[in-house]
# Entry
Amino acid sequence: MGLADLWGHHWVGILLAASLLTMWSLPAAAQLTLDTNPFTTTQGEKDAVPSMSGTPWATQTHGRFIGLLAKPTISISQNTATEQMEQVTFYCYTKDANVTIQWFFKDVPLVFHERMQLSTDGKNLTILTVQREDSGIYKCEAQGFLHVHRSDPTFLTVNYGPDPFEIKLESGISSGEVVEVIEGSTVTLSVDTRSHPPPDYSWFLLNNSLPSSSMRTFTIQAVSKEHEGMYRCLVSNIATHLLRLSALEVRVLEMLTEPHIVPPTLNLVENASSVTLTCQTSHKEAGVLWFLRGQALLPNKHLVLSANNRSLVIHGLRRDDTGPYECEVWNWGSRARSKAVRLTISYGPDQVDITRGAASGAVSTVKAELNSSLTLYCQAESQPGAEFQWTLEHSTTVYMGQQLIIGTLTWEHQGVYNCMASNPLTQLARSASVLVTVVGPRSSLSARVIVGIALGILIFIALTAGLGYFLYNRNAKRFSRKKAEDPVQEAATPSSAEEPCAESCSNWPKAMYANLPEPQGQVGVKEKDPPSTASGYYCHGPRKPSSTVALDPLVPTLPKGNTESDYEVLVNPEQNIYCQINPSV
# Structure
């Protein structure tokens, strides 16, 4: 019988009562006066007695007027049952006949299901297989034609559990079947399972067979590597005699320390080499991340990461691959990042530009005033900085440095200047040139012409001196040969014989005199010039004879009878100063 049937009987009773009251013709004194609230009740086991003029007349339940019924009672096969192992039977007993039995569970009409059976008269309620949700308060209600009456509550307790459970770690992170915790932290293991009555707990740590705790939770202070391992918890229910066991592996993660990047040891050259960076760390279980210029590095064909992210390979180095690079080791509880590493990549030199000023543009020609100063700059992008050499065409002089400074311009500074930039690491070199033109008034003779003239004069003087020295030596040698080949023949005198020229011509000259007639008294002597070089009858001497010769008192006189003679008289017959004397013509 359902709730709708009960309310149907309820309204039928009210209508019948109203009809009877209408049909009766009672005196006014005998009539009942209904209270303005006919359902004002007084409580008693949830049954209410309404007042009609304050006089109790009958019992009432749920606002319905009924007759007197006996209170039903419930009997139960067992008040405590084990889930899925036992069945329970309820019996509703009442003294009244012709009543309908209604069952209530937790004060609401019972909802029947396949695990329940109800007898034909409704008094027997059987739960075939008890479940935990069947635990609670049961009541039965006897319903007559004009009345209902409900029994006292009966309690059914269902024992169940423990249910399957998992060990939870409040301060850790699950990683598959392993839970990771940070070294030095406080770790709390807990179990949460449904069971009635409450279960007993036993914790088994690592390989220890004896229980270490009987609480639902287990706490480890300042966990270390020694606490790493498998933890087991056994949960038992003394009423159901069921046991449940669960296990959890705990891994202790070290507090991460700073890693460092192993830099390359070779010289890095743009487009000519690749480089491998290695993130070195002692934490084998930690993950590794790479950062480039402070941002997470995204791998590509140019930047390739190894399988475990421990190495980064940069293929085909570019000049902008200098970094900085960082690597970070991490786990769920901590992170540590390395110091930044920058790469030095050699490149260049790029295009060489020659400028007149440090901030001016590149030039190919430069005009400058005579006697002014000129500074040229050579620039080229290069790493490391390029080495610069300046040269001037048709000159072997090399100037080193980025600047070429000419303090005072002359005409000789004109020409094409070449600047070569070289990089010793990349073994590359580039060059550029500039034409320098000097403008200003020119002199009649250039400096080169003047220098040429001066050199010509010096050369002429040197040649003249050399020629004179040569001629002098040659004549001296010729005179020596001639004297050796042609001895001097002296003029004969009556008292002396002819003697060859025995003395050297180095005593030349001596005074020579022409033959004179014998003077009366003092002999007059005529001075005679030395023989002409054209006569060829005397030897060349080193000196010219003196222009004036003193008279010699020893000059002999000629005989009186012969005032002229075919021979010249020797002035100094005793001295062999003549090489050869020819007769007078």
User: Anything to note?
Assistant: Residues 478 and 540 are 10 Å apart (CA to CA). The first strand starts at residue 43 and ends at 44. Residues 1-66, 488-567 have pLDDT under 50 and may be disordered.
